[in-house]
Structure formats: C-alpha cells, structure tokens
Amino acid sequence: MLNPREAVRTLPSYHPPLAGRSGLRLDFNENTEGCSPRVLERLRQLRPEQLASYPEREPGEATVAGFLRVATPELLLTNGVDEAIHLLCETYLEPGDEALIVVPTYSMYRIYVMAAGARVIAIPAGKDFEFPADELCKRITPRTRLIAVANPNNPTGTVAASVDLLRIARSAPDAAMLVDEAYFEFSGQSLLAARKELPNLFVARTFSKAYGLAGLRIGVLVGSAEQMRAVRRVSSPYNLNAVALACLPEALGDQTYIQQYVSEVRESRARLERALETLGIQFWGSHANFVLARVGAASSFVEHMRRRGILVRDRTSDHGCEGCVRITLGPRAHADRLLAALQETCEEIGIAQGAPRR
C-alpha cells in the first residue's frame, strides 16, 4: 500500500476559514480596498498569447531588485511568502534538525518545518508578547538549522528589536535566519541592509498586504547571493504566473497609492486602539495592519460582528491568545464601519466600559 511519509502523516492541519466571507473583510490582514488602479488597467491589457506562454520571471526580479536596492542574484520571487518559507525548509532542513520559532506566530512555519521531517522548538513569547531574545539564544544548539521570526509578528502585531535579531543570527551561523517582513510597510523596520554582513540572514517580503495582490500570490526572498543560488535550485522556474509578473511593475510603480493606503491604515489603527482603551478591552500595541484584542468570548464576538457585516478573526487557539480576536484595519471609511459595529457589539454582549487595559 502506498503511504505518505511519516512527517506528512503527522502534520497538523491548517484550514483557514475562507468560505462564506460575506462582509467587510477584516479577518485575513488583506488590503481591504484593493490594488492600485494601475494594476487593474494592466490586467485589461493582457493579450491571449501572454497567458499561453510560460512566464519569464527574470525581468520581474530585476524590477524588484532595483526597487529594493539589492543585486538581482540576492533575490528570488516566490509564490507568496509561503513558498519562501517552504523553500528555506527544503534547502536547509534534514530529518532530525531543529527549527526555532517564537509562539504565537504564523502557523505555516511549523507546518513546513514538520513536512521536512525536522523538529519544531517553540519558544513562548514573554509578558505582553515581548520577544524572548535571550531565551531564543539559549535554545540554539548544533542541531539548529532554521530560525523563523515574523517581524512584525502575526497575530500580535509586536516587533522584535533589530539588535536582538542580529544577535540571534550571529549566534547561529550554521542556521538559516528568516526574518519575515510581510507587514513591513506598516512598521517601517527592516533588516534588509544587514544581509551583507550576515550570510545566514534571509528577509522575506510580500505584495499580498499593503499592495492588495493576495490573489496573485507574489512574495520575495532576499539573502546572500551564494545562499540564494542554493535556494533557487529547489525552486520551480515557473513558480509565478504570467498575470502576477505582468502586474508587479505597475504595483511597484504606484507608490503614491501605497503610501496613501498605509497612512490611512495607520490612522485607523490608532483610532481602533483608542476605542479599545475607552471600552476597557485589553489589546497590544501593533506595528502591523491589525490589532489583537482580548474580548473574552471570542467566538460570540466574531458572530455578533459578522451579523453587522464585519469579519474579524478568532485567535483563541493561538498560544497565549485565549479569548482574543484579530482585527484588520483599512482606510477611514472602513474604520468608521468597524468602530460603529464594535460599539454596538460590546453593548449587546455586555463588554462594559471600564478602566483602560493594555
């Protein structure tokens, strides 16, 4: 009988609740308004032969390299950041190796590590989800071959100090150090410039969040040219589709659109945090396009918000997130709808106003 590998048979399942998403989508950290109009215009211009041909990735990589101010050999375009994580696991992990993650964090780190047959070492975040840099350094061993850190972190929105991340990378020279900067545009903090001094450092970015291209699946992985040659060996030359590659230059070219959207999201984030403080709901200051808040009966809160046309994400199952929901932010008009529904829901389910809790 044909059986999958043991590592695959024991993988945890990850089933994001994507079905039936009717309403204002504040549950998956997507751009709630959509992509740049320039991207839509490019889509209208696509010719039939472009869809009938295998995609050519190199021109897109040269464009992104110029935008990020890195050398083209230091960069690989990927099918979202998910593929970047998967490729690092395939490149560097053997059965019996160890990978370090800080929990709570993005679920796919664990899944791709386990699929490679490696062992996940999960290190709990500190009080108020503080990044446990010292504890992480203590857990580095000769078996450590990958360290994955989302910065800002998902689902907490918290950030790790650059000096701590660099110290960790230096403490584990035989391990690939991935800093996942999927929410970079909302925080402004990056380790991209440190790649020259740390050959084991990799930085990932995505065009799914601020750029509104989640449906096209475009990410980018940056590292030393020598290490990226190894990663490229396990990547398909056709991993990005022709539509995504055609739209990418237009998305990058409309920085006015991106800057306006990010500015409004930051404003909306501040408005939500002020509202939560007034309501006496515990939350954690965020550097991303979402806020994590402890509302108590999270499933009831989610359902009441859904009835008002607002989708938010129950994160109770994440480590340390009991009773928490994650709320994505969008532009001002979407924040207006969110805050009105939040007030009504809190009144309806009995979340009383009280002393601010953070």
Task: Produce the secondary structure layout.
Layout: H1 6-9, E1 24-25, H2 37-45, H3 48-52, H4 58-68, E2 75-78, H5 80-92, E3 98-103, H6 107-115, E4 119-124, H7 133-138, E5 144-150, H8 162-171, E6 176-180, H9 184-187, E7 201-206, E8 219-222, H10 225-233, H11 242-253, H12 255-279, E9 282-284, E10 290-294, H13 298-307, E11 310-311, E12 313-314, E13 324-328, H14 332-349
Parallel strand pairs: 1-11, 3-4, 3-5, 5-6, 6-7
Antiparallel strand pairs: 2-8, 7-8, 9-10, 10-13, 12-13
Helix pairs in contact: 2-11, 4-11, 5-6, 5-10, 12-14, 13-14
Would you kindly provide a brief summary of this structure?
This protein is an alpha/beta fold. The chain is 41% helix and 16% strand. Helix 4 runs parallel beside helix 11 (242-253) and helix 13 (298-307) packs across helix 14 (332-349).
> What's the number of helices?
14
CATH class of the largest domain: Alpha Beta
Based on CA inertia axes, which overall geometry fits? globular
CATH fold call of the largest domain: Aspartate Aminotransferase, domain 2
